[in-house]
Amino acid sequence: MWRFAFRNLRTRPARTALGLVGLSISVVGVLGLYSLSGGLRTLVADTLGQIQGVMIVRENVPTPVFSDLPASLADRVRKIPGVRAVAAELWKIAPPVEGNGFIQNLSRSMGTQTGPVKSFWNVNLVMGEDIEAHRALKSPVGPKSILPAGQGGGRYLDLTDRGKPHVVISKKIAEDYRDPQGHAKRVGDTLRIGGRPFTIVGIYETKSVILDAILIMDIGVARELLGVPEGVVSSYYVEADDPARIDEVTRRIEEVDATIDARRVSEFQAPYGMVIDRVDSLLLLAVSLAVVVGVIGIINTMLMGTAERFVEFGVLRANGWSPRDVLELVLAEGTGLGLLAGFLGTVLALVAVCVANRFTGGGLHLALSPGLIAAGLGLALCTGALGGLYPAWRASCLEPMDAIRRGGR
Prior knowledge:
Blueprint: H1 2-10, H2 13-49, E1 54-58, E2 69-70, H3 73-78, E3 83-93, H4 102-109, H5 115-119, E4 125-129, H6 131-135, H7 141-144, E5 166-170, H8 171-176, E6 190-193, E7 196-204, E8 214-218, H9 219-226, E9 232-233, E10 235-240, H10 246-256, E11 260-264, H11 269-307, H12 310-318, H13 323-360, H14 370-396, H15 400-407
Parallel strand pairs: 4-8, 5-7
Antiparallel strand pairs: 1-10, 1-11, 2-9, 3-4, 3-10, 6-7
Helix pairs in contact: 1-13, 2-11, 2-13, 2-14, 11-13, 11-14, 12-15, 13-14
């Protein structure tokens, strides 16, 4: 039966090819979108996994960028039993860098092959550090990420940088804002942030598109640059004496003030997860539309095919084929078409993912897991079967002579 069905598909190459293309495009779209969703989840998890400790922010804010806390809160938190170190931080979206903000970067890069993709990530952040307090931390990410001296990494912020327009930038930012000769920014060069000149003292690299978008400077300098009043911070980074008691310390911190949230840094994955969950809901809608389009395409292909083969079905029925045999034949053709489209769509999706990974970078890696590939093949197979169901039923209902008469018209 299956051999007969695939042979019938080969006898109508143009119509079979159109059905394959229509359904395989749906499979490519589904696999590509879900691989992007999975890549974003992995990126966020890997990024936050690099950071230990507890972060204090204003209650019900998704990230420190939207949080404002009083600087006086630090003294109250330090008195909590189990707290080892408290470091104030100021987080805000960066003003234009070298005269270019996000919109300017997007406009400048439109029309280039990789510009629009890369400019999407060019939302730089300013992080102002209480330098003295941060030097007391045991698990800071920044100092550990400074490039080696042989790669021009320079140094991290120290006490001599307090009150001075000094900045530590990522390797990505250094390459994004090159000098007039086309060279990436280096330690000692000037970087204009918000129209003000800053001296680059260090260059770091975390290989995460989230962390590599941060401009690090003294918290006082950041306040002046961003127009934030004295006595206001965005968050506090807290380390416990005993990492095993971090949950207890977190609970005690929240008891100090009902308007704050104390979260492990890994818990900030939840807001990102909620956004990605909504993206997944949209993807589910796209999958549903893809299934509908695929089913309609298969129905059209199979209906046209069965209409051209009424004489064939009549002869088969006259030679002993039952209605069920005809039903199974046409259904096998639709299912086979779906299976072929699934394999073709999977191959195209793998190629698309490999190409996309060449341009994303920054820790974002798209991947097609075996489970996702299996789901794509299953979707194509079910779509082919559903699309072939009505044409198969219609063909099976024809009496032998009636089928021959219809086909002879």
